[in-house]
Amino acid sequence: MIPTLNAAARLPPLLAQLAAAGVGEVILADGGSTDGTASLPGPRVIAAPRGRGTQLRAGTEAARHPWLLVLHADTRLGPGWEAAVEAAMTQPGRAHHFAFALDDPSPEARRLERAVAWRCRALALPYGDQGLLIHAALLRALGGYAPIPLMEDVDLVRRLGRRRLAALPAKAITSAERWRREGWRRRSARNLILLALWFAGTPPRLLARLYG
């Protein structure tokens, strides 16, 4: 399942990758795209009010398969992901995330990847751009995705807790476009500030406006 908003230009490679792997049901939880995203061939499209949490809640409620693999539109999966997912599906009581990677050869990208790896090990806090494989029954037991515009990923993994989270031995490769455009330090600092504001109790709607 993929939350989408005007992702027609960057989504086809991920759809092709999932199709080649024989993924039976691909859902786009679309927040009102105007660029043809909802007309891309192959996936099932679920319309939802804009906001990642709202879209993901609608998509998961409509899903028919017992396992859900949640990915971002600008993500590609690295070598070995199919075997890693298949092995993880023997553990329905745990949710699984990929290792974070960026499609950029720069030293800044490698430093950020190491920082995210530390965050996942030390804080058990993967983000949505690392993907999430979760059994529908476990997601329902947790109350599903919160219908909030931002931090829906942090909210969910905090409810999961460390004992029900596991890392997959494969990468989710994310576009580094925003870091290149906004600056590596500036973008990373803003993400940290938003996370701190979330834990301080700032309303998600305000965080979404700050995120841009």
Would you write up a description of this structure?
- The strands form three sheets. The protein has a three-stranded parallel sheet.
- It is built from nine helices and eight strands.
- The protein has one domain (2-178): Alpha-Beta Complex (Spore Coat Polysaccharide Biosynthesis Protein SpsA, Chain A), CATH 3.90.550.10.
- 43% of the residues lie in helices and 19% in strands.
- It is α/β, with parallel strands linked by helices and 212 residues long.
- Helix 8 runs antiparallel to helix 9.
- The two termini are 23 Å apart.
- It has helices at 12-20, 52-62, 81-88, 107-123, 136-142, 152-160, 177-182, 184-199, 204-211; strands at 2-4, 27-30, 44-47, 67-70, 75-77, 95-102, 132-135, 165-174.
**Number of helical segments with 4 or more residues:** 9
Give the name of the CATH architecture: Alpha-Beta Complex
Classify the helix fraction into a percent range. 40-55%
Q: Using the coordinates shown, work out and report the CATH topology.
A: Spore Coat Polysaccharide Biosynthesis Protein SpsA, Chain A
| Biggest pleated sheet | 3 strands, parallel
- Helix/strand class: alpha/beta
> What would CATH call the homologous superfamily?
Spore Coat Polysaccharide Biosynthesis Protein SpsA, Chain A
Hey, roughly how much beta strand do the residues contain?
Answer: 15-25%
Shape: globular
Average pLDDT, to the nearest integer?
Answer: 95
